UniProtKB/TrEMBL annotation:
The chain crosses the membrane at residues 12-36, 56-76, 96-115, 121-139, 144-164, 176-195. Keywords: Hydrolase, Membrane, Protease, Transmembrane, Transmembrane helix. Residues 59-156 form the CAAX prenyl protease 2/Lysostaphin resistance protein A-like domain. GO terms for molecular function: endopeptidase activity. One of its GO terms (biological process) is proteolysis. InterPro entries: Rce1/LyrA-like_dom (IPR003675). This is CAAX amino terminal protease family. It comes from the Bacteria. Pfam families: Rce1-like (PF02517). It comes from Thermoanaerobacter siderophilus SR4.
Amino acid sequence: MKYVKISLKAFLKLIVFTILLVGITKCLLDIFHIYNFTIWTGIKEKSLYWVSWVDYVGAILFIFLFVFVALTEEYLFRVIIYHKVSEIISLKNKVLHAIIAVLLTNILFAIGHWPSHGYKLLPYLYLTLWGIYFSYLYLRTKNIYTACVMHFILNAGIIVTWPLKNLSLILNAGEIFYIIVSIFLIEAYKIFKYFNRNNKTLNKLSERNIETGENQTFYEINKNEFWKRMF
């Protein structure tokens, strides 16, 4: 496909990612002794207890299902549809172009999930905002798996553990916490990456400054290059 790299390396990376995410989730469930949870099927809730190997396998497969859903939806909306919409839009301003492409993509993302939320306005806006957040993760990190992990974490909220079954405010606060922490880590990494290359960048720019005869100060050079690299 045009927007998805199909190769043995990409396939192996996908397999490793899936195994790691399922494995880590299983380990966390064991660490916190979560051996019974409720599966939301859209029609009814089914209690699942990890007391037999059948339930155990069922739980692992259910976790795998959420990983698969996150992968397919992120590749579909954040990669294929986003880049297709970007091709259709014709704008010279790159920032505005990206913003409109992200908005249109996630309007479609929310519409795709809307029927399961009873066609209500608030869930639609909620889904659109989450889609924008996933787009931010993909575009900022240039890695679709970052968005997949956070998508999986959000979807995993459908697995409602018994101690938190009626504490929706805590779950919402947890989602906000995920967003804040992930954005902080990404931006902190971007800044660290920039300043780690700072000396080399300043040397190159100062040489160019001498060659062109410009009178920019080191502060101006540093500032201009900072925003160029960051965005």
